[in-house]
Design a protein that fits this description.
There is one protein chain. With about 280 residues, the chain is mainly alpha-helical. The protein has 2 domains: about 60 residues; about 200 residues, Heme Oxygenase, Chain A (Up-down Bundle). The chain is about 60% helix and about 5% strand. A 3-stranded antiparallel β-sheet has the order 1-2-3, covered by helices on one side. A hairpin with a 4-residue loop joins strand 1 and strand 2. The N and C termini lie far apart (about 65 Å). The relative contact order is 0.17. Bound molecules: fe (ii) ion (FE2) (2 copies). One fe (ii) ion binds next to helix 10.
């Protein structure tokens, strides 16, 4: 009889994510079962490519569904600019944070994870400059804006990234990264085109967006990450899934908080950071 691989992780007191080799996943309410269900005990088996993908994708979906989910807000140029300013602050951190986590993991005799993070950190190097170029293309004083302004909803995500990478056992940074990259890879051509169309005619301010979408390198980064996570011991896959879930909840909070701002309020914040009047329509 064929053996079927299942993976599971309890991400909160009462909810387990369960996935199987088809890549499908389910959320299981553990309330009322005591420890009768096998899923209340940590998994110990090996991962497979698709069951691990199911676990990670389940963590993203469950995190975004928390607190009633996220209602998408209408797109606008100020919102787009706010979004890439926020992304700058994560992207700027990535190479240094991954190097820090890799150093710690080498000390802990985990060269497999360390070298993955070192490689991935190199691949992400310079992506913050794509945001600066985009802001400049829009006629904005890019360096001054990012120096003076972290969007409110992005601040907790920056702190989460800082904490995961500085942890005694910093494996959670892989889950953080998975959440960012997999949600970026979901942006396909119609969405990218619609955001590009917000920019004034002849202005190319979508370098960061294109790279961090299903049209750029993110799809291959996500595929590589799934293979890598699937190869790790169960205890690591558990921690990575929990960090993915936590990151997804924080990303959803960011969308509620920053996505709920009016264009006028966003413009005021960017103007204050820039120290000058800004006219997006120019
Ligand atoms: Fe990147
Ligand atoms: Fe990436």
């Amino acid at each position: 009889m064929k053996r079927v691989t299942a993976e599971w992780v309890v991400v909160s007191d009462e909810t387990a994510i369960v996935s199987c080799e088809t890549g499908d996943f389910w959320f299981l309410d553990l309330k009322g079962y005591g420890d009768l269900l096998p899923f209340t005990h940590p998994m110990t088996g090996n991962g497979t490519r698709r069951s691990t993908a199911g676990l990670l994708n389940g963590a993203v979906v469950l995190g975004f569904a928390n607190k009633g989910g996220v209602t998408p807000s209408a797109i606008s140029l100020p919102k787009y600019v706010l979004d890439i300013i926020g992304s700058f602050h994560i992207t700027r951190r990535t190479p240094g944070h991954f190097a820090q986590a890799a150093k710690r993991l080498r000390e802990l005799n985990r060269p497999d994870i360390a070298s993955y993070l070192e490689t991935h950190g190199r691949e992400e190097t310079g992506h913050d400059r794509l945001v600066l170029k985009d802001l400049r293309a829009l006629g904005l004083p890019a360096e001054r804006i990012v120096e003076n302004f972290i969007p409110d909803g992005m601040q907790p995500l920056c702190e989460l990234f800082d904490n995961l990478c500085a942890a005694d056992y910093p494996i959670g940074c892989v889950g953080f990264c998975y959440c960012f990259e997999s949600t970026a890879a979901m942006k396909r051509k119609p969405e990218v085109d619609a955001l590009e169309a917000l920019c004034p005619k002849g202005v190319h301010a979508s370098r960061f967006l294109r790279t961090h979408s299903g049209l750029g390198s993110e799809l291959s980064h996500v595929e590589e990450m799934i293979d890598f996570v699937a190869s790790l011991p169960a205890s690591d896959r558990i921690e990575i899934t929990k960090a993915t879930f936590e990151t997804a909840m924080s990303m959803a909070n960011r969308l509620r908080r920053d996505g709920g701002m009016s264009d006028a309020a966003i413009l005021a914040k960017i103007q204050a950071a820039a120290g000058q009047e800004i006219d997006f329509a120019a």
